[in-house]
Amino acid sequence: MSAAATEVDVAIVGGGMVGASLALALRDTDLRVALIEGFAPDAAAQPSFDERTTAIGNGSRAVFEALGAWPRMAGDGGVIRAIHVSDAGRYGFARLVAADLGLEAFGCVLPNRVIGRALWEGLAQAPRLTTFMPARPVDARAGADRASLEVERADGSRATLHAALLVAADGAQSTLRAAFGLPSHVEDYGQVAVVANVAADRAHDGTAYERFTSVGPLALLPLADGSYTVVWARTPADAAEAREMPDAQFLAQLQQRFGWRAGRFVRVGRRVTYPLALTRSDATHATRLVLIGNAAQALHPVAGQGFNLGLRDAATLAEVLVDARAGGADIGGEAVLARFAAARAADRRGVTGFTDGLVKLFRDDRPGVGALRDLGLLLFDLAPPAKRVLSRVSWGFTGRLPRLARGLDVHGRSPTEPR
Questions:
Q1: 8-15: average pLDDT
Q2: Is 2:138 a contact under the CB 8 Å cutoff?
Q3: Buried-most residue among 14, 137, 187, 335 (CB within 10 A)?
Q4: DSSP for 242-297, written as a single string
């Protein structure tokens, strides 16, 4: 290891949307934070801020508002005012309308690059933040009272960090999780998502569509310019073919599979593909280490819950660390990390089970299952109480929301309280 070491309280590995959100949540605390990221935020190769879009639920919007990031992204969001769910080739459907449930919207759809830009602009004013970027971890060790992390910069030079706590926010293939020997289980859904922006011959009305097909879900998410993001789960072979086929052929296939609810599809942008799987870590913390976001659980994009879940990880961890520091506790100690794990367990379990269950329910082709599934959709469509319950999913599966999602700062103070 290199001779000189940087002393920090929290070292976050991964500066994507979840890691950057955690760093921003800690900006106005007395904690010294290091953020290690392999790509510059505006780099074309940055995998977190690529062509994909993310559905932001109302709870996540509240977190971004509390962090001061929302004004920098709100104008680029496509508002979701209704959700239409259907079972391709069958009669089952359900429709949720935000206004019917007393909501302005269910959320919005934002380009990942917009989210990343807003977060990193906020981090530019973080007085106790040290960034190592582009850089990657090459060694990590946990001791009794601190952890050591060695990082390698793009020019080959190395730096050593000492931290009370290491945070793995480096995705489903987390190198930090692997370095600490935490096993994870991957369930391959046998699907690849084809993602592209498409325009129809009429602007959308704020409806997000989720259509379940025999090979996987097909989602259309409304964008700010009146077009849609398409997330189309297909077999690996079909996805590879769809990525390369002529635009007219892709649009014709999409029209045939989706139908005409959104109008006639007239234009498609560049298509990218991503394999779909459920990745879960057996444990979400170890000595001097905690996992958040996709490093802890990476979900299928159906229902758009993955990032919202990860953001609640970040918001809750920031709250737990601030409380621990205020109480004089060791922020990287087992008691603090166990408190965080307990606070997140029900939400993580609920959202993961809900998402995985949806994927498997709509792929079940056993005799009679389809009819029962469609009957369930129709009954749901006629049941306002069930709709109200489902509309709360993006707020989480636990009764207690993080402070940031309740309009408070990470210390628990309202915006009007003196600092």
A1: 97
A2: no
A3: 14
A4: HHHS-HHHHHHHHHHHH-STT--EEEE---EEEEEEEEEES-SEETTEEE-GGGTE
Two structure tokens written together for 274: 């991503």
- Top pLDDT among 128 and 374 is at 128
Domain ranges (residues) in the chain: 5-185+277-404
How large is the average pLDDT for residues 238-266? 95
Q: The pTM is what? A: 0.92
Residue 373 has pLDDT above 60, yes or no: no
Instruction: List the CATH code of the domain at 5-185+277-404.
Output: 3.50.50.60
Helix (H) or strand (E) holding 241: helix 236-244
CA dihedral sign, ordered 418, 116, 84, 228: positive
Given a contact cutoff of 8 angstroms between Cβ atoms, the answer to whether 309 and 348 are in contact is yes
Q: Inter-axis angle of helices 58-66 and 306-326, to 10 degrees? A: 40
Task: Count the helices and strands in the chain (H runs, E runs).
Answer: 10, 20
Is it the case that residue 350 has pLDDT exceeding 50? yes
Count how many Cα atoms sit within 13 Å of the Cα of residue 29 in the half-sphere of its side chain.
Answer: 25
Six-digit token string for 293: 């976001």
Burial class (CB in 10 A: 0-12, 13-18, 19+), 313: buried
Q: Is the dihedral of CA 31, 37, 39, 41 positive or negative?
A: negative
Neighbour-count burial for 139-167, b at 16+ CB within 10 Å, e otherwise? ebebeeebbbbbbbeeeeeebbbbbbbbb
Q: What tens digit of pLDDT does each residue of 65-80 get?
A: 999 999 999 999 999 9
CA distances from residue 112 to 49, 115, 117, 214, 269 in whole angstroms, order as listed: 5, 5, 9, 29, 16
Q: What whole-number distance in Å separates Cα of residue 380 and Cα of residue 46?
A: 40
Separation CA 71–CA 182 (nearest Å): 38
| Cβ burial, residue 341 (10 Å; 0-12/13-18/19+) | middle
Burial zone of 388 (CB within 10 Å; 0-12 exposed, 13-18 middle, 19+ buried): middle
